[in-house]
Amino acid sequence: MVDQPISIGVDATTWQFYKSGVLMRADCGEELDHGVLLTGYNASASVPYWIVKNSWSATWGEKGYINLQEGNTCGLCNTASFATV
Predict the structure, then answer these.
(1) Which of 7, 37, 40, 54 is most buried when burial is the number of CB atoms within 10 A of its CB?
(2) In the predicted model, what is the mean pLDDT of residues 38-66?
(3) Distance set, CA 73 to CA 19, 48, 57, 78 (Å)
(4) Residue 27 lies in a domain
(5) In the structure, what pLDDT confidence band is assigned to residue 2 with cuts at 50, 70 and 90?
(6) Domain hosting residue 22, numbered range
(7) What is the CATH number of the domain that holds 15?
(8) Ramachandran sector of residue 82 (left: φ over 0; alpha: ψ -120 to 50; beta: rest)
(9) Average pLDDT in the chain
(10) What pLDDT, on the 0 to 100 scale, is given for residue 4?
(11) Residue 1: inside a domain
């Protein structure tokens, strides 16, 4: 288990329309085109989701964040990197 933010690549082609809620797997593909930061996870929600910080400013999405349905939504599991000490 990793207890720190993780840099990930995602397919953000549909993200421009995101305002709030949970973006579902069916709403995006896996052609990675954008780098973001995976910051957390909510397992107790009715639809469990990853919490991802975007770089498009706090006026986008949920104060600069997007919630992605658990699993490999938008390809977020395809490339991940984090520091080890």
Answers:
(1) 54
(2) 96
(3) 17, 12, 22, 10
(4) yes
(5) low
(6) 6-81
(7) 2.40.50.170
(8) beta
(9) 94
(10) 86
(11) no
> In which order are the strands placed within the sheet that holds 80-81?
22-23, 65-69, 49-53, 34-42, 6-10, 80-81
pTM: 0.92
In the block, residue with structure tokens 């990930």: 8
Spell out the SS3 assignment of the chain.
CCCCCEEEEECCCCHHHCCCCEECHHHCCCCCCEEEEEEEEECCCCCCEEEEECCCCCCCCECCEEEEECCCHHHCCCCEECCCC
Pair 61, 20: CB distance under 8 Å: yes
Question: Dihedral sign, CA of 11, 12, 17, 21?
Answer: positive
Q: Cα separation of 81 and 21, whole Å?
A: 26
Is the pLDDT assigned to residue 64 strictly greater than 80?
yes
